[in-house]
Design brief:
Elements (H helix, E strand, L loop, with lengths): L2 H33 L17 H8 L1 H34 L5 H9 L6 H14 L6 H26 L2 H9 L4 H30 L4 H4 L7 H11 L4 H23 L8
């Protein structure tokens, strides 16, 4: 067997595995989107026809719209908190000169190694110890803990690629630390910061494992509302809600790709 034949077989196997992986990742979402257009009052695949009925039902449901607004508000707050904490933390982890940097990095990234359910339960028990009930504030805190590593990792990757000599040159020209950060370092971090904000917003908006334990029962976010709805409903409206969530996340990623380019994240 010649080397060229081996290369062709290897390339074909690699392409087949890549296509299979994409199918396994994208296939379930495509099925959900297809089911959302089912005109009948029960879930069926393939759909028997095409109808926008269930999307109208979603927008007419006051409870779902309130849950959507709650998710938007919480995701926006989580994004701001993570950016406010994550950018300085990443800066300290990369540019700081102090002992224990490795321990700091491990501490900042440790929530990413834990299941969201663990963080949610831990926050719930912590709140119960101090008589802090489930609320939007508890939800923001728990989701911020869960999402902070996304900001830290992306910004750290960008900071590691920046030339520290630019900051030194700015200091030599008379600029202070704050002026150097806001006029030299921060503009170079902008693409990564925007990407981190987008990923954090999507994760906070769609997260159910953390929100299930920490959200207010009277103002549940959309993923938790959908979780409870699926236990009592079996109509394509559930698929319509899921399709809207998929579309919303896709729109955020498309905007991100068109504005800064996904290839520039972390560079």
């Amino acid at each position: 067997m010649t080397q060229s034949l081996v290369d062709r077989i290897g390339r074909a196997v690699l392409i087949a595995l890549a296509c299979l992986s994409i199918l396994l990742l994208v296939g379930p979402s495509l099925i959900v989107i297809a089911i959302s257009f089912e005109p009948r009052g029960y879930i069926a695949f393939p759909p028997s026809g095409f109808s926008m009925r269930w999307y109208g039902e979603v927008f007419q449901n006051r409870q779902l719209m309130d849950a959507f607004l709650t998710s938007l508000r919480v995701a926006g707050l989580v994004m701001l908190v993570c950016l406010a904490l994550g950018i300085p933390a990443a800066f300290a982890a990369i540019r700081g000169r102090f002992g224990g940097k490795s321990a700091l990095n491990a501490f900042l990234l440790s929530p990413q190694m834990m299941p969201g359910m663990v963080i949610g339960i831990a926050t719930l028990f912590f709140g119960a110890y101090f008589a802090w009930r489930q609320s939007d504030l508890m939800l923001v805190v728990s989701l911020s803990v869960f999402c902070l590593p996304f900001v830290v990792r992306i910004v750290m990757a960008r900071l590691a690629a920046l030339d520290p000599g630019l900051d030194e040159a700015s200091a030599n020209l008379g600029a202070g630390r704050a002026q150097t950060f806001f006029r030299i370092t921060l503009p170079q971090l902008a693409p990564s910061a925007i990407a981190a904000a987008a990923f954090t917003f999507i994760e906070a908006f769609d997260n159910v494992t953390v929100a299930l334990f920490t959200s207010d029962v009277r103002a549940r976010p959309l993923p938790v509302e959908l979780y409870y709805l699926v236990q009592f409903e079996s109509t394509p409206m559930i698929a319509a809600i899921s399709a809207l969530q998929i579309g919303f996340s896709l729109i955020v990623l498309v905007i991100l790709a068109r504005t800064i380019g996904l290839d520039r994240i972390g560079r």
